[in-house]
Amino acid sequence: MQITMKDENEIDFAKLREFLIRLAFMCVYLLFFCKNVMRNQLIRVLQVGEYVAAFIEFLGSETQVDYDNVHILGHSLGAHVAGYVGNYMPKKLGRITGLDPAGPAFEMPYLKDTEERLDAADANFVDIIHTCAGSLGFLRPIGHADFYPNGGTFRQPGCPVFSSQACSHGRSHQFFAESIVHPDGFVAVQCSNWMDFQLGKCDNNNSNTAVMGESISSDTQGIFYLLTNAQPPFGKGKMK
Protein backbone atom coordinates (compact mmCIF):
# COMPACT_ATOMS: atom_id res chain seq x y z
CA MET A 1 0.00 0.00 0.00
CA GLN A 2 1.28 3.44 -0.88
CA ILE A 3 0.17 6.81 0.46
CA THR A 4 1.18 10.00 -1.34
CA MET A 5 1.01 13.47 0.22
CA LYS A 6 1.56 16.73 -1.65
CA ASP A 7 0.35 20.31 -2.12
CA GLU A 8 -2.59 20.42 -4.53
CA ASN A 9 -2.16 21.41 -8.18
CA GLU A 10 1.58 20.84 -8.20
CA ILE A 11 1.85 17.23 -9.33
CA ASP A 12 0.05 15.03 -11.81
CA PHE A 13 -1.33 12.61 -9.23
CA ALA A 14 -3.30 10.68 -11.82
CA LYS A 15 -0.11 9.81 -13.67
CA LEU A 16 1.73 8.85 -10.48
CA ARG A 17 -1.15 6.65 -9.37
CA GLU A 18 -1.32 5.03 -12.80
CA PHE A 19 2.39 4.23 -12.69
CA LEU A 20 2.17 2.77 -9.18
CA ILE A 21 -0.80 0.55 -10.00
CA ARG A 22 0.92 -0.57 -13.18
CA LEU A 23 3.96 -1.55 -11.11
CA ALA A 24 2.08 -4.04 -8.93
CA PHE A 25 -1.25 -4.88 -7.38
CA MET A 26 -1.53 -2.35 -4.61
CA CYS A 27 -3.79 0.22 -3.02
CA VAL A 28 -2.80 3.85 -3.57
CA TYR A 29 -4.19 6.62 -1.37
CA LEU A 30 -3.72 10.30 -2.19
CA LEU A 31 -3.77 13.15 0.31
CA PHE A 32 -3.90 16.77 -0.90
CA PHE A 33 -2.96 19.96 0.93
CA CYS A 34 -4.29 23.40 0.14
CA LYS A 35 -1.52 25.95 -0.37
CA ASN A 36 -2.58 28.00 2.68
CA VAL A 37 -1.54 25.15 4.94
CA MET A 38 2.05 26.44 4.90
CA ARG A 39 0.94 29.52 6.83
CA ASN A 40 -0.33 27.42 9.72
CA GLN A 41 1.92 24.49 9.08
CA LEU A 42 3.28 23.28 12.41
CA ILE A 43 -0.04 22.61 14.12
CA ARG A 44 -1.65 21.31 10.94
CA VAL A 45 1.24 19.00 10.14
CA LEU A 46 0.91 17.38 13.55
CA GLN A 47 -2.83 16.96 13.10
CA VAL A 48 -2.61 15.54 9.60
CA GLY A 49 0.12 13.13 10.68
CA GLU A 50 -2.05 11.92 13.55
CA TYR A 51 -5.09 11.46 11.28
CA VAL A 52 -3.13 9.51 8.66
CA ALA A 53 -1.60 7.29 11.35
CA ALA A 54 -5.09 6.58 12.73
CA PHE A 55 -6.29 5.74 9.21
CA ILE A 56 -3.43 3.26 8.70
CA GLU A 57 -4.15 1.68 12.09
CA PHE A 58 -7.81 1.36 11.06
CA LEU A 59 -6.78 -0.39 7.85
CA GLY A 60 -4.54 -2.66 9.89
CA SER A 61 -7.37 -3.70 12.18
CA GLU A 62 -9.99 -4.06 9.44
CA THR A 63 -7.97 -5.55 6.59
CA GLN A 64 -4.88 -6.96 8.34
CA VAL A 65 -2.63 -4.79 6.19
CA ASP A 66 1.01 -5.47 6.97
CA TYR A 67 2.73 -2.27 8.14
CA ASP A 68 5.92 -3.51 6.47
CA ASN A 69 4.13 -3.13 3.13
CA VAL A 70 3.10 0.48 3.74
CA HIS A 71 5.11 3.03 1.74
CA ILE A 72 4.44 6.75 2.24
CA LEU A 73 5.61 9.26 -0.37
CA GLY A 74 5.73 12.85 0.82
CA HIS A 75 6.76 15.92 -1.16
CA SER A 76 7.90 19.13 0.58
CA LEU A 77 5.70 19.62 3.65
CA GLY A 78 4.18 16.20 2.99
CA ALA A 79 7.55 14.60 3.72
CA HIS A 80 7.44 15.89 7.29
CA VAL A 81 3.80 14.81 7.62
CA ALA A 82 5.07 11.34 6.74
CA GLY A 83 7.58 11.67 9.55
CA TYR A 84 4.83 12.49 12.02
CA VAL A 85 2.85 9.49 10.78
CA GLY A 86 5.85 7.32 11.54
CA ASN A 87 6.12 8.83 15.03
CA TYR A 88 2.46 8.13 15.80
CA MET A 89 2.45 4.52 14.59
CA PRO A 90 2.66 1.76 17.23
CA LYS A 91 4.86 -0.24 14.83
CA LYS A 92 7.30 1.04 12.23
CA LEU A 93 6.14 1.38 8.65
CA GLY A 94 8.03 -0.28 5.84
CA ARG A 95 9.21 2.79 3.96
CA ILE A 96 8.98 6.56 3.75
CA THR A 97 10.25 8.46 0.71
CA GLY A 98 10.91 12.16 1.26
CA LEU A 99 10.70 14.10 -2.02
CA ASP A 100 12.68 17.28 -1.38
CA PRO A 101 11.44 17.67 2.22
CA ALA A 102 10.61 21.28 3.10
CA GLY A 103 13.53 23.26 4.49
CA PRO A 104 11.86 26.49 5.72
CA ALA A 105 10.57 26.14 9.30
CA PHE A 106 12.16 22.69 9.60
CA GLU A 107 15.85 23.29 8.85
CA MET A 108 15.84 27.07 8.53
CA PRO A 109 16.24 29.31 10.50
CA TYR A 110 17.20 26.46 12.85
CA LEU A 111 17.09 22.67 12.74
CA LYS A 112 14.00 21.13 14.29
CA ASP A 113 14.32 18.17 16.65
CA THR A 114 13.83 14.78 15.02
CA GLU A 115 10.42 14.46 16.70
CA GLU A 116 9.29 17.52 14.73
CA ARG A 117 10.43 16.51 11.24
CA LEU A 118 11.20 13.54 9.02
CA ASP A 119 14.24 11.48 9.97
CA ALA A 120 15.62 7.97 9.52
CA ALA A 121 13.90 6.64 12.66
CA ASP A 122 10.41 7.17 11.24
CA ALA A 123 10.30 3.95 9.15
CA ASN A 124 12.29 0.79 8.56
CA PHE A 125 13.70 2.49 5.46
CA VAL A 126 13.75 6.21 4.68
CA ASP A 127 15.06 7.47 1.35
CA ILE A 128 15.33 11.13 0.39
CA ILE A 129 15.61 12.89 -2.99
CA HIS A 130 17.00 16.43 -2.64
CA THR A 131 16.42 18.79 -5.58
CA CYS A 132 16.19 22.29 -4.06
CA ALA A 133 18.39 21.78 -1.01
CA GLY A 134 19.25 24.80 1.09
CA SER A 135 16.31 26.79 -0.26
CA LEU A 136 12.81 25.30 -0.49
CA GLY A 137 14.20 21.88 0.39
CA PHE A 138 16.22 20.25 3.16
CA LEU A 139 20.00 20.41 2.77
CA ARG A 140 21.16 17.92 5.40
CA PRO A 141 21.01 14.17 4.81
CA ILE A 142 18.17 12.89 7.01
CA GLY A 143 17.39 9.40 5.70
CA HIS A 144 19.08 6.04 5.46
CA ALA A 145 19.86 6.93 1.84
CA ASP A 146 20.01 10.52 0.56
CA PHE A 147 20.22 11.33 -3.15
CA TYR A 148 21.42 14.65 -4.55
CA PRO A 149 20.74 14.67 -8.31
CA ASN A 150 22.76 17.39 -10.05
CA GLY A 151 24.12 18.39 -6.65
CA GLY A 152 20.65 18.52 -5.10
CA THR A 153 20.25 22.29 -5.33
CA PHE A 154 18.55 24.76 -7.66
CA ARG A 155 18.76 25.47 -10.57
CA GLN A 156 18.08 21.89 -11.70
CA PRO A 157 18.82 21.28 -15.41
CA GLY A 158 15.96 22.39 -17.63
CA CYS A 159 14.39 24.71 -15.05
CA PRO A 160 13.77 28.29 -16.22
CA VAL A 161 15.64 31.12 -14.50
CA PHE A 162 12.56 32.95 -13.23
CA SER A 163 10.93 29.93 -11.60
CA SER A 164 14.04 27.92 -10.84
CA GLN A 165 13.28 27.23 -7.17
CA ALA A 166 9.73 25.99 -7.66
CA CYS A 167 10.74 23.98 -10.72
CA SER A 168 13.73 22.45 -8.93
CA HIS A 169 11.59 21.66 -5.88
CA GLY A 170 9.19 19.78 -8.15
CA ARG A 171 11.88 17.78 -9.93
CA SER A 172 11.98 15.35 -7.00
CA HIS A 173 8.50 13.95 -7.66
CA GLN A 174 9.09 14.01 -11.42
CA PHE A 175 12.24 11.92 -10.97
CA PHE A 176 10.43 9.49 -8.68
CA ALA A 177 7.46 9.10 -11.04
CA GLU A 178 9.80 8.33 -13.93
CA SER A 179 11.69 5.79 -11.81
CA ILE A 180 8.53 3.69 -11.53
CA VAL A 181 8.42 2.96 -15.25
CA HIS A 182 12.20 3.18 -15.80
CA PRO A 183 13.64 1.48 -12.70
CA ASP A 184 17.26 1.59 -13.93
CA GLY A 185 17.11 5.18 -15.12
CA PHE A 186 18.66 6.87 -12.10
CA VAL A 187 21.89 5.16 -11.09
CA ALA A 188 23.77 7.13 -8.44
CA VAL A 189 27.28 6.93 -7.00
CA GLN A 190 28.08 7.03 -3.30
CA CYS A 191 30.34 10.00 -2.64
CA SER A 192 31.26 12.25 0.27
CA ASN A 193 30.41 15.48 -1.56
CA TRP A 194 29.33 16.97 -4.89
CA MET A 195 32.77 18.34 -5.73
CA ASP A 196 34.44 14.93 -5.43
CA PHE A 197 31.70 13.44 -7.60
CA GLN A 198 32.26 16.08 -10.29
CA LEU A 199 36.00 15.48 -10.19
CA GLY A 200 35.51 11.74 -10.69
CA LYS A 201 36.98 10.82 -7.31
CA CYS A 202 34.22 8.37 -6.44
CA ASP A 203 34.24 4.90 -7.95
CA ASN A 204 31.11 3.84 -9.81
CA ASN A 205 31.57 0.10 -9.38
CA ASN A 206 28.53 -1.97 -8.45
CA SER A 207 29.36 -1.96 -4.74
CA ASN A 208 29.35 1.84 -4.70
CA THR A 209 26.18 2.57 -6.69
CA ALA A 210 22.47 2.62 -5.94
CA VAL A 211 19.27 3.11 -7.90
CA MET A 212 17.33 6.25 -6.96
CA GLY A 213 13.56 5.98 -6.85
CA GLU A 214 10.93 3.28 -6.47
CA SER A 215 13.24 0.30 -7.04
CA ILE A 216 15.90 1.20 -4.48
CA SER A 217 17.10 -1.67 -2.29
CA SER A 218 16.00 -1.29 1.32
CA ASP A 219 19.51 -2.01 2.58
CA THR A 220 20.95 1.04 0.78
CA GLN A 221 22.70 3.52 3.06
CA GLY A 222 24.75 6.64 2.48
CA ILE A 223 24.90 9.82 0.40
CA PHE A 224 24.63 9.50 -3.38
CA TYR A 225 25.07 11.80 -6.37
CA LEU A 226 24.02 11.53 -10.01
CA LEU A 227 23.40 13.56 -13.15
CA THR A 228 20.08 13.78 -14.98
CA ASN A 229 18.88 15.04 -18.32
CA ALA A 230 17.25 18.46 -18.59
CA GLN A 231 14.04 17.05 -20.09
CA PRO A 232 12.12 13.76 -19.88
CA PRO A 233 13.30 11.13 -19.86
CA PHE A 234 15.35 12.58 -17.00
CA GLY A 235 17.21 9.37 -16.20
CA LYS A 236 20.50 8.76 -17.97
CA GLY A 237 20.41 5.02 -17.46
CA LYS A 238 23.13 2.77 -16.16
CA MET A 239 26.62 4.07 -15.52
CA LYS A 240 29.11 3.34 -18.29
Automatic annotation (TrEMBL):
<dbReference type="InterPro" id="IPR033906">
    <property type="entry name" value="Lipase_N"/>
</dbReference>
<keyword id="KW-1133">Transmembrane helix</keyword>
<keyword id="KW-0812">Transmembrane</keyword>
<dbReference type="InterPro" id="IPR002334">
    <property type="entry name" value="Allerg_PlipaseA1"/>
</dbReference>
<dbReference type="GO" id="GO:0016042">
    <property type="term" value="P:lipid catabolic process"/>
</dbReference>
<dbReference type="GO" id="GO:0017171">
    <property type="term" value="F:serine hydrolase activity"/>
</dbReference>
<dbReference type="InterPro" id="IPR013818">
    <property type="entry name" value="Lipase"/>
</dbReference>
<feature type="domain" description="Lipase">
    <location>
        <begin position="45"/>
        <end position="234"/>
    </location>
</feature>
<keyword id="KW-1015">Disulfide bond</keyword>
<feature type="transmembrane region" description="Helical">
    <location>
        <begin position="20"/>
        <end position="38"/>
    </location>
</feature>
<keyword id="KW-0964">Secreted</keyword>
<dbReference type="GO" id="GO:0005615">
    <property type="term" value="C:extracellular space"/>
</dbReference>
<keyword id="KW-0378">Hydrolase</keyword>
<keyword id="KW-0472">Membrane</keyword>
<dbReference type="InterPro" id="IPR000734">
    <property type="entry name" value="TAG_lipase"/>
</dbReference>
<dbReference type="InterPro" id="IPR029058">
    <property type="entry name" value="AB_hydrolase_fold"/>
</dbReference>
<dbReference type="GO" id="GO:0008970">
    <property type="term" value="F:phospholipase A1 activity"/>
</dbReference>
<dbReference type="Pfam" id="PF00151">
    <property type="entry name" value="Lipase"/>
</dbReference>
<protein>
    <recommendedName>
        <fullName>phospholipase A1</fullName>
        <ecNumber>3.1.1.32</ecNumber>
    </recommendedName>
</protein>
<comment type="similarity">
    <text>Belongs to the AB hydrolase superfamily. Lipase family.</text>
</comment>
